[in-house]
Amino acid sequence: MPDHDPTPDRTPDLDIAVVRLDPDLPLPSYAHPGDAGADLHTTVDVHLAPGERALVPTGIGVALPDGYVALVHPRSGLAARHGLSIVNTPGTIDAGYRGEIKVLLINHDPVEAVTLSRGDRIAQLVVQRFERARFVEVGVLPESVRGAGGYGSTGTGSRP
Ligand SMILES: O=c1ccn([C@H]2C[C@H](O)[C@@H](COP(=O)(O)OP(=O)(O)OP(=O)(O)O)O2)c(=O)[nH]1
Ligand SMILES: [Mg+2]
Description:
Blueprint: E1 17-20, E2 29-30, E3 37-41, E4 46-48, E5 53-57, E6 60-63, E7 68-73, H1 76-82, E8 84-86, E9 91-93, E10 102-107, E11 114-116, E12 121-129
Antiparallel strand pairs: 1-6, 2-3, 3-12, 4-11, 5-10, 7-9, 7-12, 8-10
């Protein structure tokens, strides 16, 4: 770590009530100042054959304030080293949810199994504010430059 960290730790913006359903495992925590994701741990040993998935408990329950959502993101190190990801990435933890946060891990490696031990950090939780939309039905949508183009409509090469 440099003498002067250019990303100093912030005063937390928000308190979130957490229960530890497994008191021997740590609370979610940020690895570095400025990190967006707080790491979540598995409470169980996991063995995933190639292509296999498993719903893995984290031992954590939260009560998010109204207007907030927590998103369960994969960890890039596990993805790069082992092909490990999350089936429904990012998982959505609703403000009203009071159950245990679980992570639907999947082993995308075509050959190697993935083995994780109880206590390993398996995913990261990003807490965000969100907008509650009112879906207002109209007959025709306003025009835009993109229009209905999508799914690669701009091509893959560099653009002028
Ligand atoms: O990765 C995840 C995704 C969801 N959940 C919990 C929290 C969330 O609030 C609840 C419902 O998730 P979601 O809305 O994604 O699932 P659904 O299939 O739509 O179920 P439901 O009908 O219960 O909303 O399950 C997790 O613990 N981990
Ligand atoms: Mg739902």
